[in-house]
Amino acid sequence: MLRQLSLLTVLISVAGPVFAAATGLFEIYTQALQADPRIPIAQQKVEVGKAQADSAFGALLPQASFSASLSDNEVQFDSDLVEDRSYNGERYSVQVRQMLFNWRTLSTRARTKQVVAQRESELLDVMSILLVDVSERYFRVLLAQGDLELKQAELELVQQQLRQTEELYKRKLVRITDLLETQARADRVRTDLIEAENNVALARESVSELTGTTVGDLAPIKEDFTLPQLANTMEYWTGLATSNNALLASKHEAVLAAEEAVEEQKGGHYPTVDLILSGQRSDVGFDNQSSPKRDTQYVGIDINLPIYSGGSTSARVREAWAQYYIAREEEEAARREVLKRTREAWLNTRSSRRRIDSADLSVQSAAKSYEAMSKSFTYGTVTATDVLEALRGQTLAQRDYQDALYSYLVNWMALKRESGSLDADGLRQLDDWLISSHL
């Protein structure tokens, strides 16, 4: 179970000034950790749990109190035989109470310790969710940027094709339809280019939502980086998720806390035993009557046995049992959801890896097709439409390759998150994939 808050430890260990030519994924994640509201909310929930645990622990310790009473007393008698009196009174007392047995207090302490563990697991879960969210949005920017660059390259090639077609048309070597088709394709690519520029801006805004700042240039992925391999079977990864997933850990700890809550309410049926030590100095007695100053010490055992409370204690026990059964069902629902997401991530990662290999072959084939069509056009054996379609196919093949690549990385990270294995090495590997963003 992820009990060391490993992600946070890594961030603290690498904290320091960073001089970057382009912002890397790790820097974006660090900014998101500081700016995303989900993190401080989860952190404050941990603090709430710790405060409750400290309060419960304090109830196990001796409880000391001091009281003082200063009074101005006047006694008047109805009988004339007794003279009225007026005097000052003082009373000081100290009491120390130590709990010897209180099942409710002991169970409260045990419950709050489980709540702290639950909240820490929830914090880990939120941090890992944020990491995947940041990565997905980061790669979405890179994908949009790559699409924009492909559109720009396509427009340049179409314009080159247009100039060539115009020269051939002047020499009556191509038909007017070829020229018009090429002009129309150039106009369509310009329109696509406008949309691609807007997609880049929208993708950057989605990252800014997490960091709370304007996003500058993002470090792209290295061309020669090694893809992380999908090792082991689906059963292996689901086994890891069952053991290490932070959400499952928090749900299990919630069940344990609910179990202690049942014991806490059962404590209302049990006796309580307290040791009491007290001391008092006073010069007033019963009914505030004046008396000589005296010191009184007391040592005693206070036993309280509840007999009848109108059924309220039993009702609270039933409520606690109901909450316990709810927690168990929520744990089972979370287990099924985590296993489903783990299997989906494994299948999507495997599928994306195959898509990368297939798309790579498609890019090579499309490039050869476009090159062949371009040469054939100069000989008049194909039309401009054939050349433009080949160029379009090359652009789409390159776009599919980029989409498969980024999908693989996002799905791989989702698999690592669900299995609870997204640790310090995984974070460092993310930045190693990018073109060096540090000067």
The first-level CATH class is given as: Mainly Alpha
What is the number of independent domains?
1
Rg of Cα set: 37 Å
Shape field: elongated
Q: Return the CATH architecture.
A: Up-down Bundle
The CATH homologous superfamily corresponds to Outer membrane efflux proteins (OEP)
Strand order of the biggest β-sheet: 1-2-3-4
- Mean residue pLDDT: 87
Distance between the termini: 37 Å
Give start-end ranges of low-pLDDT stretches.
Answer: 12-20
What order do the helices and strands follow?
A: HHHEEHHHHEEHHH
Strand content: 5-15%
Number of strands: 4
How many distinct helices?
10
Helix content: 55-70%
SS-based class: alpha+beta
CATH topology call: Outer membrane efflux proteins (OEP)
Brief write-up:
The protein is an alpha+beta fold and 439 residues long. Helices cover 65% and strands 13% of the residues.
Walk me through what this model shows.
- This protein has a single domain, classed as Up-down Bundle (Outer membrane efflux proteins (OEP)), CATH 1.20.1600.10.
- The chain is built from ten helices and four strands, in the order αααββααααββααα.
- The protein has helices spanning 6-13, 25-35, 38-58, 103-170, 176-211, 234-244, 246-266, 312-378, 384-418, 424-432; strands spanning 63-75, 85-101, 272-284, 290-304.
- The chain has a four-stranded antiparallel beta sheet with strand order 1-2-3-4.
- The longest helix is centred in the first third of the chain and has 68 residues, at 103-170.
- The protein is elongated, with a radius of gyration of 37 Å.
- The model is unreliable at 12-20 (pLDDT under 50).
